[in-house]
Amino acid sequence: MTVRIEPDEAPAEPSAISARLEGAQFQDAAGNVVVSSIEDGSAAARSGLRAGDVIVAVNRRPVSTVAELAAALNNASGAIALLFRGGLKLFLVIR
In whole angstroms, what is the distance from residue 40 CA to residue 73 CA? Predict the structure, then answer.
């Protein structure tokens, strides 16, 4: 079986997400949030985000759309922890 994941909508504007992730664009893709691009030298790049990362939770709160990601980031205070899904689970803490 071959599965193709395509974005559901245009990338979200970086300012719509969080200043701490400035320089990143996110897309909804098959019930996940995917980092679609990262500007070199940006806050997002310095935090360790990379294009192609799949974000599934913010501070242990599951997210499956860019809107949910934005809401979770707007409600987060202090450091934020992003959980990526892949062969391994990776937590990225952003201050």
Answer: 22
pLDDT in tens, 38-50: 999 998 898 888 8
**Whole-angstrom Cα Rg for the chain:** 12
What's the distance, CA 41 to chain centroid? 17
pTM (2 d.p.): 0.71
The C-alpha atoms of residue 93 and residue 58 are separated, in whole angstroms, by 10
| CA distance linking residue 68 with residue 52, whole number of Å | 18
| Phi-psi domain of 30 (left: phi exceeds 0; alpha: psi -120 through 50; beta: other) | left
38 contact partners, CB below 8 Å, separation of at least 6: 23, 24, 25, 44, 45, 49, 50, 51
How far apart (Å, rounded) are the C-alpha atoms in residues 72 and 48? 19
